[in-house]
Give the backbone structure.
Amino acid sequence: MSEYAKQELEEAIISLASTLHKCEKMQESGRLLSSQKTLNDRRVKALRIALALIEKEVRCSDAD
């Protein structure tokens, strides 16, 4: 992922974290239908993975 600047990665973290927070709030609301809940659950999982990978990349670039 070295083709991305550290600032770009940090901005992506902020954006993804915001989206994750909104998806988690929807999960907590209990107002989602079954198919919507499944889709939202998958989004939450994907966002958590993406955040973890980006944060790992930022930490590795800090170590260099």
In short: The chain has one domain: 1-17+27-58. The mean pLDDT is 94. The chain is about 85% helix and 0% strand.
